[in-house]
Predict the structure.
Amino acid sequence: MNPAQKPLKQRMTFAIISHPDSGKTTITEKLLLFGGAIHIAGAVKSGKNSRASVSDFMEIEKERGISISTSVMGFEYGGRKINILDTPGHADFSEDTYRGLSAVDSALLVIDSVKGVEERTRSLCEVCRMRRTPIATFINKLDREGKDPMEVLDEVERELGIGLCPITWPVGQGRSFKGVYDLQKKQLLLFFPGETRKPADTVAIKDLDDPLLLEKLGLPLAKKLKDDIALLSGVYPPFNKEDYLEGRVTPVFFGSAINNFGISELLDTLCVLAPPPSPKHSQERVVNPDEDKFTGFVFKIHANMNPRHRNRVAFLRICSGSFERNKSYYHVRAGKPFRSANPTAFMAQDSEIIEAAFPGDIIGINDTGSFKIGDTITEGEAINFRGIPSFAPQIFRYIVNADPLKEKQYKRGLDQLAEEGVVQIFSRPQQPNVRVLGVVGQLQLEVLQYRMEHEYGAKCNYKPIDLSLAHWFTAADPKVLEAFIDEQSRRILVDIRGEHVLMSESVWQFERTKANNPALSFYSTSELSGETA
Ligand code: G4P
């Protein structure tokens, strides 16, 4: 038997996604706490990156020890090896999050019961839906007076376009929050603020007419629970695991993360439900996790994780076979052999050098500058994994070196941070020194300046440029493509992969070019396989 096969079924690799402030950090921490991976609350500091200034953002990264933008936390629980990938909540770092979602097999969506579905919830779910990633949902902050749970469910179904199946159901909310009823196990889990529940606080209920229900909840709440359950069973079909695994239905849990309430049930259920490593699509073929030969892809690069060592770490998702320390592999884009003497696994607060890693695992490999995001590593097969695109930036600037004496540091910093995906850099084929910077959010511009200065000792300034759209493009006929590149040379730049990108000043300008060139297809991601513009 393939040695990777046994660990394969046990692994579950998922990302926690949410709008900032919904409680993602709190839940991550509580999952680690219940999973036995950490022992004191407070070990994972709240991100708060929704409000953070750039230096706060970097400070927070340091404070947490595990970076906000790169956290991978592995631990063993319930017979499974669990890998949680933390993703930045801030919209300015959405590219990072989208790439992170390419490296997981399922997602946990956190919704604030007071606010309901928010803007980031929508965009993140959209990405999951495109990839058919199974989503479990935790509706948080039931200890606060929030929206009616039925209303929240309606919103999720309507706005996120996904079917629902409540696994637990809240009894009261805010000050009258009494706990949740587990619809599958027919148990009432009683809530006491701030406390971790004792076994006696779980009450098994024979049916909804059980006198225990009345005794524990009082008449009004017991009656409401009965009415709610009757309504739910009329509206939502019974839970079907296949529908969840296909991304059609999300099982829904309710609780209060800050009060440790509902998290252990969530973790136990995820251990049973969450999918093992799934097949991954490459441009050439689908790669199954139980294949003997190793394959994996780099979905993230982080330079200077440890400022004292100035190292650069490439995050590798293992897709098939096993990755072994010191074994020689093939770096497809570079066409070169590659081996790692110290592949690293990330634990809750630590990292350790490992001998082998298996599908579903995310490991860090020391990178001396040879990797780029999206690179595939194999045992010799020339395949390229898909799903790690660059997204069309929305903000553009010329970038200039503000300290000519530090030209070398400036170039190195810019190249490395572009490869890391902090910003996108475009240049003119004939003038490689004229660089145009593209970002999705304003905060990325500030992060670039901060990191250039603090990590490379270089200073950069931005100058306005009249651009608002970028599109990658293809044509079936290479001659048509060549003629277009020639004709539009003034508007065409190249990205760091060497791909041509058409720049437009306005939607109108782009639409006109598109209408005049029907033989070309235009894309808003570098992958050229996603939606056409
Ligand atoms: P995020 O990572 O999604 O941005 O959210 P985070 O966990 O940082 O939580 C955002 C705020 O919500 C925090 O409060 C946190 O304590 C609070 N919170 C999380 N879970 C619950 C819950 O179940 N009930 C209630 N009432 N609050 C919850 P804060 O005041 O912004 O920060 P802090 O001072 O508590 O750290």
Notes: DSSP finds 14 helices and 31 strands in the chain.
